[in-house]
Amino acid sequence: MKKTITVIPGDGIGQEVVAGALQVLEVIAKKFIHTFEYKKALAGGSALDATGIPLPEETLTYCKQSDAVLLGAVGGPKWDSNPQHLKPERALLGLRKELGLYANIRPAKIYSALVDASALKKEVVNGVDIIVVRELTGGLYFGKPSGFEKRNGEEVGFNTMIYSESEVRRIAKSAFEIARKRKKKVCSVDKANVLETSQLWRRVVIETAKDFSDIELSHMYVDNCSMQLIRNPKQFDVIVTENLFGDILSDEAAMLTGSIGMLASASLGGNVAMYEPVHGSAPDIAGQNKANPIATIASIAMMLKYSFNLSAESDAIENAIEKVLSKGFRTGDIYTEGTTLLGTKEIATKIVEFI
Ligand code: NAD
Q1: 151 phi and psi angles, rounded to 5 deg
Q2: Domain covering 105-259 in this structure, CATH number
């Protein structure tokens, strides 16, 4: 298989973690006989420095012409005082919008060697492997009207939660397709006992499920889901939910696992998906070979699975991560006494060796 990947290292540790991930991708190419071509592109602070804008047209063109996008992270203190439209983070919004990425996929997977890093009891989190599919471009965050005005002599703030059938249908479809590559279970989370948007959401999810008879669909109210994630997270496989609920639940689910340096993500929707670690550019450790590259390497595993349909290759990466951790190799963020502390490059090389 031959695929073109636009690679946007970005700023700070973005550069370092992406270098580690590409090393891993290259060994996968060699072992499974694929060709990955890389187009390096600028976004964020590095783009501002080189071109004066956070998301150059050339970067967008590269992304649209490629089969997938890998992003490190953007941002840093150098650009913090820039006006809003010249902040590095604008590049992220621009990429999501231009590539039509309406589905944000955040796995929360416990690596057994790191089970003690969770704030929850071992027996509750051991074996947790959840994916939260969050609708990313609709709902309360984008609904109109929104704003402030004076009513009855005092100021009010207001937002509109709104979803169309087609918006719900496409995100439900994404969730069912993802579940097909996993345990074939989807839990749709809403607040249908109170909200009309949720009632429509539930109706459309049920309707969409008719095309996915192999998937077991359940429904849960969001307040109950937030409790169940802590009480018994192992009951979940794929959770699908709207923007605001997903924003909160994906952070809650991710934190079952411990460190931000381990959290991968994918944004799907348009023709080209984007894969990136959840963390930012970590200016406090940038350039010191201290960053954990596993979130980015796990994002590559997601790319292979979801964009290229290469499940065996994806599993090879996941298994190698698991092995490296179980042999006691750690970066600083997940280091505990008795384990072996390695730098960004060294832990990426270990993962390559295990593959
Ligand atoms: P951050 O995620 O960069 O860092 C938070 C803390 O976690 C820091 O102590 C950092 O050292 C640590 N950390 C993060 N990733 C790590 C890794 N891979 N290995 C080890 N430790 C890691 O968040 P922040 O400090 O709030 O933001 C820094 C910059 O990143 C800001 O400019 C922010 O806007 C930007 N940011 C970008 C993205 C993105 O590109 N998607 C996301 C979040 C923040």
Answers
A1: -135, 130
A2: 3.40.718.10
Query: What's the CA-to-centroid distance between 284 and ligand 1, angstroms?
Result: 9
Pocket of ligand 1 (CB under 6 A): 13, 17, 73-76, 89, 92, 260-261, 276, 279-285, 291-292, 295, 333
Among residues 251, 323, 335, 345, which one is catalytic? 251
Tell me the average pLDDT across 320-332. Answer: 96
Q: Is the pLDDT of residue 93 over 90?
A: no
Tokens of 63: 């992304």
Domain 1-102+269-355 identical in fold to domain 105-259: yes
Banded pLDDT at 157 (limits 50, 70, 90): very high
Q: Which CATH class is domain 1-102+269-355?
A: alpha beta
Residues in the chain: 355
Half-sphere CA count of 20, side-chain side, radius 13 A: 32
Contacts of 53 (CB under 8 A, 6+ apart): 47, 86
Residue 354 one-letter amino acid? F
Does the reported pTM lie above 0.85? yes
